[in-house]
């Protein structure tokens, strides 16, 4: 079921409300909550709303589903996006768990992030976007690690992705499907007719591994 919204503002309001509810439930149940964000255009207005939300952010950890293997000073950094748009205002006290590290390779960065992501799981809320090639996180068609990343019984939660795929085609660090399925709720945020068609009628792409699984609750939020 695809939930349709008139515009980006309406979608962002619904996503922010769902996130506040999920974080509040996590805080009430365990005294701590977690939000795994994503990069790109779709989550940015959601981050803007959440930065002012009445949440006990000091007990929330924020992470990412994927990031480019670039420092936070780069405009391609998803960490930079989250810091600039979410971790400010009321949300400034939240802790941040990075995927990028200043090490020689994305695989080395993934090794550093792996135990921290495992310790944080299960996640109270996960945001995902989707490319027009059907990729989610940095599980990208054509990548030499895509098959391993989509293995539902794979041992890794975090993998390095070599350069050469995606836009921009830089090296990346990504959560795997087993890690994505650790979310208590996932919001897939998409925009435009092409992406709706992929979700509604496609098959065989990384996003469909999420759409066809029954372990982790998933909502698809779409606007034209």
Unreliable parts? none
Strand order of the largest sheet: 1-10-9-6-2-3-5
Q: Average pLDDT, to the nearest integer?
A: 97
* DSSP, total strands: 10
- Main beta sheet: strand number and arrangement? 7 strands, parallel
For the record, the count of structural domains works out to 1
Query: What is the CATH class?
Result: Alpha Beta
Q: What portion of residues belong to β-strands?
A: 15-25%
CATH-assigned fold name: Rossmann fold
CATH architecture annotation name:
3-Layer(aba) Sandwich
Cα-atom Rg, whole angstroms?
A: 16 Å
Q: Which structural class do you get from the secondary structure elements?
A: alpha/beta
The ordered H/E elements are EHEHEEHEHEHEEHEHHE
**Ends apart, CA distance between termini:** 16 Å
The helicity comes to 25-40%
